Amino acid sequence: MIKVGIIGMGIRGSLFAEAIRQNPFAEVVAVSDAFEQTLQRSVDQYKVRGYANVEDMFDKEEMDAVVIATPDFLHMKPVMLAAEKGVHIMVEKPFSTSVEEAEQMAAAVERSGVKCLVAFENRWNSPFVAVKEAVANGEIGKIITVNSRLNDTIYVPTQMLKWSKGSTPGWFLLPHATDIALWLKESKPVHVYAVGTKKKLVSMGLDTYDSIQAVVSFDDGTHATFTTSWILPETMPLIYDFKYEIIGENGALYVDLSDQMVRKAASSYQHVHTLGTPINGALTSAPSYMLNSFIDNIRLNTTPESNEAAGLLNTKLVHAIHRSVESGAVEYL
């Protein structure tokens, strides 16, 4: 059995723990969380040892792999510890919110020879898997432009996340959208121009951006636009609104994850979140497929496609977007 530790037992860490429970080749052996109540709940639920200090977990546990589900800006320390100990790594996106940190992390992973999967989960999301196949088959020809809109309701920064003031919709949401473009296109991003707005959340005591819009230029002369916000009203029919448009020389592809085929009108109007609905108790979500892929990378000795190089490139791109928002100028990667 592949012995896995999980660092960060919030929503995502718990999700990954459940996925590991269903994987016949892996088991959770330890968990770590900075919040005592969260840690104790996880210890009781999964019947494993728990550590408030992540260094203690690495010192005392024999682990083959770790899943790092800490906030956006707290990935470096556990990644560096895992690489030093020769422990395989699955780390939440973004790889880091700092290019310097991401470069150090990528170098440490490469030196150690461990496998690293950066959790760009939409690479395992069936609509985007279908899009990737269509692009790879040449059905729309060379990609000319990409337009993406990924928004959350205001519930996310004000209630769901305890640490939203330390992040932005650019760091929490944009990595999903930008990674899809980097995954689909053969060209590399060169420079960006972006703008951002701080009004609504600042008025509520959270000093972070409400929205960010960016135009990204690639080395083949093509461009992509990305817009993101996390202040949509809680009356939205789904907690997120994710739309993606890929226009090629010979066709186009359109993805709309905000409408997942089932609409419910009861006490309120909702779009039912059908993607990832468990079937006969089995998890079918993109994060669980991604976790299983990581376990397969370890047991079959294969290389994750969504690796540290993909994580570093994404961090460079999203960091350039934030620099452009601050400078008001075009920023190069």
Q: Which features would summarize this protein structure in a list?
A:
six-stranded parallel beta sheet; seven-stranded mixed beta sheet; alpha/beta; 333 residues
Descriptive account of the structure:
By secondary structure, the chain is an alpha/beta fold. Helices cover 37% and strands 27% of the residues. The protein is built from twelve helices and 15 strands. It has a seven-stranded mixed beta sheet. A six-stranded parallel beta sheet has the order 3-2-1-4-5-6, with helices on both faces. A two-stranded antiparallel ribbon has the order 13-14. Strand 11 (240-248) and strand 12 form a beta hairpin. It starts with a strand and ends with a strand. The relative contact order is 0.16. The model has no long low-confidence stretch (mean pLDDT 97).
Helix and strand layout, with pairings?
Layout: E1 2-7, H1 11-22, E2 26-32, H2 36-46, E3 49-51, H3 54-60, E4 65-68, H4 76-85, E5 88-92, H5 99-112, E6 116-119, H6 126-136, E7 143-153, H7 155-160, H8 169-172, H9 174-184, E8 189-197, H10 200-203, E9 211-218, E10 223-232, E11 240-248, E12 252-256, E13 263-265, E14 269-271, H11 286-299, H12 308-327, E15 331-332
Parallel strand pairs: 1-2, 1-4, 2-3, 4-5, 5-6, 7-10
Antiparallel strand pairs: 7-11, 8-9, 8-15, 9-10, 11-12, 13-14
